[in-house]
Structures are given as C-alpha cells and as structure tokens.
Amino acid sequence: MENENISLGQEVNIPERLLKREQERISAIEKRQEKKGDKEHDGFSNMFNENYDKIKGMINEIDVDPNSGSVNKEELKEKFADINKQILLLNHVIVDAKIFLTSYDMKIYNNKLQELTEQCNILETKLLPRKKFGFKKVDKVKLGGQGDKTDEAEKKILPKDDVDFVKPRQHEEETYIGFYNRSNETLELPSEDVHKKPVSLSNIDSCVVKVNGNASTIHLNNIKNSQIFLGPVSNSVFIDNCTDSTLYLACHQLRMHTSHKCSVYLHVTSRPIIEHCKNIGFAPAVNIDPVLLQSAGLDEGTNHWNEVDDFNWLSVEEKSPNWYVIEETDRKNM
C-alpha cells in the first residue's frame, strides 16, 4: 500500500479542473461585487441629480422672479434658509456615500454642490444686502486664556473694519472676505460681515485671528505660529500648509493638507480628512454657543473629532501615526 502522507517540501499536484473551478468562483464573486458597486453608484447618481435639480430650481425661481426685490424680507429669508438646509442635507449624503464612491466621484459631487452654495450666497447677498459693519475706534479682542501669544499680538491691533477682500479665484464670481499677508497682529471679523460668506485667511504669521458668526466656507492657507478661532461654519473648512498653530473650529467637513505640528480643537459632523500631514493633535471643541451651531446647521450632539481619515495611511488595522489625540491634561482652556 502506498504511503498517502505528504512529506514537507513535497509538491502537491492540484488537478487543473479544480484550479479552473476556483478561478471561476473568484471571478464570479468579483463580478457580483462590481455590479453591486455600479448599482449603488447609479442609484446615488440618480438621487443626487434629482436633489441637485430641485435645489437649483429653488434658486432659479427666486432669481427670475421680478418681484423678488420687493418681496417681504422675512419670506426671502425663509426661502434661503430652506435652500441652505437642502444643500447641507445633500452634503451629508455625499459624505456618507464615500464608502462606495471613488475619490474622483467625491470631488465631482462636492464641486457641483459648492457651485450651488456659491450661487445661493451671491443671490442672497444681492436680494438681502447687509449693512456694512464697522468700528470707529480700535477694540481689543478679548479671547481669554491665550497666554503670552495674546499679549504679544495685542501690540498691534487693527480696527474690526480693517479687513482685506481677497480677489476671487478663477471661475469664481464672489470675493472672499478675510485677511492676508499679516504678521504679529490681533485680527477679528465681525459676524455681520461674515454671515454665509466664504472667508479666506492667507499668509498669516504669529497672529491671533477670530472669525465670528457663521461663514459658508473657510479657506486657511500658509498659517504659521498663530491661533485661529472660527465660529461654526455651515459647510467646509479647508486648511493648507498650516504649521505650529492652534485651531479652534466647528464645521460640517474638515480637510487638512500639508500641515505639521498643529493642535486642532474640533466639532465636526463628518469624519475629518488629513493628507500629507504630520504631528497633528485633535481634541473636542467645547463651550460652543448652541445657537450658533444651530444657525450653521450643525448637530450639537454629533462630533467625529477623533475619527480622522488619513489619505496617506491605508492600513485599517493600525491607527495613522500622523495624528494623535491630545491628552486631557495637555488641552488648552479655550
């Protein structure tokens, strides 16, 4: 009788028909998964386009109405509030769909939604213009708990109406309100100027900056050795090239790129995203005015501050080394 035991190192000859059957089984599974993904994407695409057209129709209805300029302001405010609510809900849906959408698809949908947001903001500014807000005297910004950084920055404090209006980028009609090319200053934007407008802070070095009210979106670029305090933002905060700084913010979506050695105190209703970042500390933002959160459409009870997605760290089993949770004993009292 032949010995049926297979010794170590001995090759096992698997019949070709079994190999072929296994390959066919794997191929069938992959095809089913691919069809499932395509089906989910097609369903999402139809849903997105339907809601996109609905929101665009709501905006166009106000824009072409010859009586819009003379209509009751409270009615107009309600219409714009409804549009912004629909935009925010659709934004939530896009974020939730990232489990089956590609990065390219996410970018396309986000860009289309951003176009709607900007179109709505431009029309609202046109039909419901806000009185320009300013101060005749220089007021100190009382942020509290800022330590030596605040004392140093208070050496040079600007009036609250001394703001920079950043030139619009290509294909953008609306001007970004904000500050740029500033150093060793304490800067503040009043809520009346910020309300539902895009804000930009660029080339800021060794400053304390406070943005009040509810901006629609905020872009931070080239921030160094600074402390940034942002009121609740209705949509997204985009951060590029931020180093050695402390950020305090609330928003629906946070995207942080090419930043290092920063502390982020955050209230965010979707998972924050970092890319090409190192040594970024996160902690929950506390003591945020619930009225401001509500006016920005943010859920006070939902905060994903410690559920960070690092696009440069693909492992699902190990946490990214590029970010960490700030220990409670090390957190600043904002």
CATH architecture of the largest domain: 3 Solenoid
Distance between the termini: 83 Å
Radius of gyration: 25 Å
Note the main sheet: 8 strands, mixed
Number of helices: 6
**Largest sheet strand order:** 1-2-4-6-8-10-12-14
In CATH, the topology of the largest domain is named Pectate Lyase C-like
Fraction in beta strands: 15-25%
Q: In total, how many beta strands?
A: 15
Report the mean per-residue pLDDT as an integer.
Answer: 77
Shape, per Cα inertia axes: flat
GO biological process, one term: post-chaperonin tubulin folding pathway
Keywords: Acetylation, Chaperone, Cytoplasm
Main location: cytoplasm
GO molecular function: tubulin binding
Structure explained in plain terms:
Residues 168-313 form the C-CAP/cofactor C-like domain. This protein is of the alpha/beta class and 334 residues long. It has 2 domains: 22-63 and 72-127, Methane Monooxygenase Hydroxylase, Chain G, domain 1 (Up-down Bundle); 177-330, Pectate Lyase C-like, CATH 2.160.20.70. It has helices spanning 16-64, 73-96, 103-127, 148-153, 191-194, 290-295; strands spanning 164-166, 176-183, 186-189, 199-205, 208-211, 218-224, 227-230, 236-243, 246-251, 253-257, 260-268, 273-275, 278-284, 309-310, 323-325. Residues 131-161 and 166-173 have low confidence and may be disordered.
Topology:
Blueprint (H helix, E strand, L loop, with lengths): L15 H49 L8 H24 L6 H25 L20 H6 L10 E3 L9 E8 L2 E4 L1 H4 L4 E7 L2 E4 L6 E7 L2 E4 L5 E8 L2 E6 L1 E5 L2 E9 L4 E3 L2 E7 L5 H6 L13 E2 L12 E3 L9
Parallel strand pairs: 2-4, 3-5, 4-6, 5-7, 6-8, 7-9, 8-10, 9-11, 10-12, 11-13, 12-14, 13-15
Antiparallel strand pairs: 1-2
Helix pairs in contact: 1-2, 1-3, 2-3
